[in-house]
Amino acid sequence: MTMIPPDLEHAQYVSLATFRRSGEAVATPVWAAPTNGSFYVFTAGEAGKIKRLRNSDQARIARCDSRGRLQGDWHDARAIIIDEVNEARTALAALREKYGWQMWLADFASRLTGKFEKRAYIKVTLIDAV
Questions:
Q1: Which pLDDT tens digit goes with each residue over 2-56?
Q2: Domain residue limits at 61
Q3: For the domain that residue 70 is a member of, what is the CATH number?
């Protein structure tokens, strides 16, 4: 199992970079909850990162601030869209545990706008350095 670097494990935000077919990276600041050597992230079901991940699981993450300004080094990773209901529940529970009232507020707003059921959850796993 890959060890999660402490700078990422305790980061409020991480920059998740996914890749276009051209190979160009597109980075987005996201909340990420570490669980069992991986991270769980949530996003809108039709977000660009979901479309890019359908083409390639190549990703990288780095510690950042809420605006996406890097505060650490990039780490190569693989990211997959979670299709299994129980794992999506695990992801949501991990995010709620880490972000507490902030996640509760995000969930509440998503339910009000009808977007909660359209969310996508992503599992990000660091690639072991050789």
A1: 577 878 888 999 999 999 999 999 999 999 999 988 999 999 888 999 999 999 9
A2: 6-126
A3: 2.30.110.10
The pLDDT of 59-85, averaged and rounded, is 95
- The strand ranges marked E within 20-110 are 25-30, 33-35, 38-44, 58-64, 75-81
Any domain includes 1? no
- Number of domains present in the structure of the chain: 1
The H or E element that residue 57 is part of is: none
Q: Residues with Cβ < 8 Å from 59, sequence gap 6 or more?
A: 16, 17, 18, 19, 53, 76, 77, 78, 79, 124
User: Would residue 24 count as lying in a domain?
Assistant: yes
* Position 104 in a domain: yes
Rg, Å, the chain Cα set = 14
Residue 50: helix, strand or coil by DSSP?
A: helix
Neighbours of 7 (CB within 10 A): 14
Q: Which residue in this structure is represented by tokens 């909340």?
A: 31
Is the pLDDT score of 82 beyond 90? yes
What's the pLDDT tens digit per position in 108-120?
998 888 888 889 9
